[in-house]
């Protein structure tokens, strides 16, 4: 398993626990409601998307019977996804404004596009 897969799967589990904790704190009234979008993104981009990245980086080359050619770029993509998500979560939760949120959302978008290109290379390369 390449390092990008392990990192994506490990951070997916971290985001899962963190999102559940934020959800609990929202439910108990400890956190204000402006954390709701952060909670949702922690579950969807943090847990679900990173889990997909990790499994796909491991499984797709095996399905095709090819060697993963760009493990360093995949590792960069996983790091970019985590950085973008962390920035969005903090921007929402701490009320840092749409400009800061948008900058981190752009990083998250770039990570998704990079993942798509890497997956397409595996499938068609």
Explain this structure to me?
- With 125 residues, the chain is mainly alpha-helical.
- It has 4 helices and no strands.
Q: Would you tell me the structural class of the helices and strands?
A: mainly alpha
Share in β-strands: under 5%
Radius of gyration: 16 Å
Query: H/E series, N to C?
Result: HHHH
Mean pLDDT, rounded to whole units?
97
Count of extended strands: 0
Low-confidence stretches: none
Q: Helical amount among residues, as a percent range?
A: over 70%
For this entry, give a set of tags.
single chain; 125 residues; mainly alpha
Summarize the structure.
84% of the residues lie in helices and 0% in strands. It is an all-alpha fold and 125 residues long.
């Amino acid at each position: 398993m390449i390092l990008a897969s392990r990192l994506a799967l490990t951070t997916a589990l971290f985001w899962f626990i963190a999102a559940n904790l934020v959800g609990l704190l929202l439910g108990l009234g400890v956190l204000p409601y402006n954390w709701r979008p952060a909670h949702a993104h922690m579950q969807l981009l943090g847990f679900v998307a990173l889990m997909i990245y990790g499994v796909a980086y491991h499984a797709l080359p095996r399905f095709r019977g090819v060697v993963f050619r760009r493990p360093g770029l995949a590792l960069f993509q996983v790091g970019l996804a985590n950085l973008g998500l962390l920035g969005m979560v903090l921007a929402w939760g701490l009320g840092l404004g749409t400009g800061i949120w948008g900058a981190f959302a752009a990083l998250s978008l770039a990570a998704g596009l990079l993942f798509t290109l890497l997956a397409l290379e595996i499938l068609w390369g």
